[in-house]
Amino acid sequence: MAQADIKLLKQLRNETSASIADCRMALEESNNDYEKAKEWLKKRGLERAEKKSDRETSQGLVESYVHNGRVGVLLEILCETDFVARTDDFKKLAHEIAMQVSAMNPENIDVLLKQEYIRDSSQTIEQLIKTTIGKLGENIQVKRFSRIALGE
Question: Where exactly are the structural domains of the chain?
Fold first, then answer.
């Protein structure tokens, strides 16, 4: 294993928000191959998310999104602590999912989770949530949503 390149370590940390220890390990495991290190971090985040899936979520927030005054969404998304609920990463996730509901009009949560993410078709909403779980270290669940469209 090669020692982690400090410039790559900083770049990886800034791009992924993963811990310094995880970034260092990813770079060492991938012999300082930046793309392989990103994949390693993604895989590790998904593994962590699976381990947290049965933990209770009793905190969170309600996100509202209105698109051009014609479509409105209310989304309830939960996490384990109010500390995480107030983070920018969690708020961004809630906003992105509300936008997804507005654009794609899923029938229910199961359908929503299986949909391709509108900003990145290489991942589903479920993968987006698991990536955020890996980053924040807490279980996250979409509890419910409601979508209202003008004239429907």
Answer: 6-52, 59-149
Give the residue among 41, 44, 33 at the shortest CA–CA distance from 15. Answer: 41
Summarised one tens digit per residue, pLDDT across range 28-70 is 888 888 888 888 877 777 677 666 667 788 899 999 999 999 9
Q: Residue 70 gets which letter from DSSP? A: T
If one looks up domain 6-52 in CATH, what number appears? 1.10.8
86 contacts: CB under 8 Å, gap ≥ 6: none
Q: How far apart are CA 106 and CA 72, in angstroms?
A: 14
The pairing of beta strand 59-67 with beta strand 141-149: unpaired
The secondary structure element, H or E, covering residue 26 is helix 20-29
For 59-149, CATH number out of 1.10.10.10, 2.30.30.280, 3.30.479.20, 1.20.1440.230 equals 3.30.479.20
